[in-house]
Structure formats: C-alpha cells, structure tokens
Specification:
Helix content is 36%, strand content 19%. By secondary structure, the chain is α/β, with parallel strands linked by helices. The strands form two sheets. The protein has a six-stranded mixed beta sheet with strand order 2-1-3-5-6-4, sandwiched between helices. A six-stranded parallel beta sheet has the order 9-8-7-10-11-12, with helices on both faces. α4 (108-118) crosses α9 (253-268). It starts with 9 loop residues before the first strand and ends with a helix. The structure holds NADP nicotinamide-adenine-dinucleotide phosphate. Residues 69, 108, 111, 132-137, 157-159, 162, 183, 201-204, 206, 214, 229-231, 252, 255-256, 259 line the site of NADP nicotinamide-adenine-dinucleotide phosphate (NAP).
Length: 293
Amino acid sequence: MESFITGRTQTICLLGFPTAHSISPQIHNHAFRSLGLPYVYIPLNVAPRNLAAAIFTMRCGMSGANVTIPHKEAALHYCDEISPLSAVTGTVNTLYLKDGRLCGTTTDPAGFYKALAAAGHVLGDDHVVILGNGGTARTLGASLLLDKKCRSLVFAARSEKKAALLVSQLKKDENIPVDYCVLRSPESAEFFDRCTLLINCTSVGMHPQTKETPLDAKFFHPEMTVFDVIYNPGITRFLTEAAAAGCKTQNGLLMLLYQGLESFRYWTGVSAHASLFDITELQALADKGNHSK
Ligand SMILES: NC(=O)c1ccc[n+]([C@@H]2O[C@H](COP(=O)([O-])OP(=O)(O)OC[C@H]3O[C@@H](n4cnc5c(N)ncnc54)[C@H](OP(=O)(O)O)[C@@H]3O)[C@@H](O)[C@H]2O)c1
C-alpha cells in the first residue's frame, strides 16, 4: 500500500476564511511532490474567532502556514518574531518556525516585484499610483518605500479619509514624496498623467463583478505599465482597457505564484523554480475556482 502521506510528512496549512477558492494547495502540493519533499499543504477554513486556536495548533504540530483574507493583520500578533517588512506593512502572509519560535513575514512584495520583472518592467524610477487603501495597497506601498523602489507614490482611493490615514501611518522616506487623492476626482488627473506604474490593489473587477473597473479608461497612456493584482479573471476589464491604450500589462497570477514560492523557501529551505508550473493550467485552475464556489 502506497501513500504520499506517511508518519514523516510535515504539514503546512492555509489559514483563511474562506479558503475554497484558493489555488495555493494545488501550487504547493504540486511543488512538494515534483521535488520529492515530505510535505503536504492543507486549507484550514478558520473563522476569525478561532484564529488563536488554529495558530496554537499550527505551532504545536505543523511546520508553517500561509495566511490570507481576513487574517493577515491579526495573525501578526501571534508571532514571536516578525520581519522588518512586516513591521512596516502590519501584515503577515507566511508563518514558519525557527528554533521553536513562530516567525512571520509577507512574501507578497517579493511576488509582485518578480511578476513585474516578468512583464519586462524595470522598477526603480517610477511615479507609482496605487488604486485602493486596503491590505494589499498598504503592503505594496510600504514595501516600495522601504526598498526605495519608486520616485513618488500616490494612493488613489474612494475614501479620502482612509487614504489619508494610510499615508499618515506609512514609514516615509524623505526623498520619496507620498500623497493621496480621491478616485474620479478632478484633482486625480495630474497624478495619472505623471504615473509610469499603476497598480490596482482594489477588488474591483474580480469575479463575479467582471464588468466593473476601478478607473476610467481615459487615464491610461502608453508610458504607463499597468499591473492588476487580481487574477480571476485573468484579464480584467481594467487590463483590457489599459492594453488597448498601449500600456504594458500584467495580472496577479504570477505574483500569486512567486509569493507562494517565496513562502515555500521559508518552510523547506528549497528554492522551487516557476518552470515547475504551466501558467495556462494555473489560470484554468483559478478560473475553475470561480465557478465551483
Ligand atoms: N495576486 C496576488 O498574489 C494577490 C495577493 C493579495 C491580494 N490579491 C487581490 O487583491 C485584491 C485586494 O485584496 P486586499 O486583501 O487588499 O483586500 P482589502 O483589504 O479588502 O482591500 C480592498 C480595497 O478595494 C477597495 N474597493 C472595494 N470596492 C471598491 C469600489 N467599488 N471602488 C473603489 N475601491 C473599492 C477598498 O476600498 P474601501 O476601503 O473604501 O472599501 C479597499 O481599498 C483582491 O482582489 C485580492 O484577491 C492578490
């Protein structure tokens, strides 16, 4: 009798609520099995009231975890150590154990940087506009500032109050101006005119609201690279309109894959290569997740 799970198998879990749509179990289990590593990755659908118990269980008997919506901020408070990056983003998406201590970090920025590079965009001297003020907007904005990877940074959000609060909370770099504006306000136009890297960190356009877009197409111009963190659908209305305006575009699927492989390295010490995966197959899995909910 053969089973790929044995008494020596180490467990990694996904802490989320819900987890049914996630393709991380397929990504990690495929990588573990392709590389012959004794691990298994399981989804744990954990309601917020049960997060403390789930993390306690995880640190007692498992080797690590991914953390997703809505636990990325709350999980940070259960860590013994957090990375300098998580200290500025206030979020963790990866938990791992080091000498019995629970460590937390976020691999979303590393995934974003690699996905952007794969689109042929060289980061460093950009006027960046981030759409949104939620967890991903904060994580990518904080990381661009920490890594000094932009020339200026603007958050364009529907709530002026929330955008102002986010900007006030970020750790600034004196050489990088940070500002905010309200989406669809007349004042926002100048920021989009100057923008060379536009990142959608809102959930607008995600399945099933595929007809929606966070930004009027008139703001796109060919000097902009346009990144959508959404990967379901693979091509959002936002990306379709950006491509039609001559922008270089990238969706969030490679970001998801690369952040996952970065987490994988924290748990196993092994660098898995993206070539283990067929991107078309991954996109099909993500699309299938939409319809099985
Ligand atoms: N590719 C990847 O690896 C990856 C990684 C992380 C997240 N994501 C994706 O990123 C997206 C955001 O996730 P998150 O964790 O940052 O969520 P979040 O914290 O809930 O933030 C969502 C943002 O969307 C804004 N928003 C929602 N509806 C809007 C509308 N109609 N008009 C304007 N803004 C609107 C929200 O504004 P308010 O605050 O005003 O509500 C908020 O700023 C999700 O689609 C998620 O799947 C992808």
